[in-house]
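tool_call predict_complex ligand=copper (II) ion
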Amino acid sequence: MLPPPGRYRAVPLALALLLGVAVACVPTAEVPDDCGAAAVMRPATLVEERLEPATLEVCRGQGVTIQLAVERNAVFHLHGYDAELSAQQVRAGEDVTLTFEAVRAGQFPMAIHTTDGPAEATVGTLVVHER
Ligand SMILES: [Cu+2]
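tool_result ok
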């Protein structure tokens, strides 16, 4: 005997609701603990064509300092934040301090431009949370 058709229709609806709720929760659930601080520091290392960690998270309105340990020569460029942080030449062995205001929320690719490797490679993402 077949169950009434309404029973099967409820399953995809429940799944869609669950997924929708899970996706909608991500941005607020993962706001950094220090979101209330006026200024924050994030350490990172530039190794080959990647940043470790690959994702740096801050909140809009914060003064951000990226303490960058550099292991390869490149021009470091934060896309979408050109006005706040100009692209700059970094050299292997240097510790570079990059400071800017996180004025815009969103996800911004951190890239390097090189002459001895890829012309441009995305090495990580800056996530600026709305608060
Ligand atoms: Cu670039």
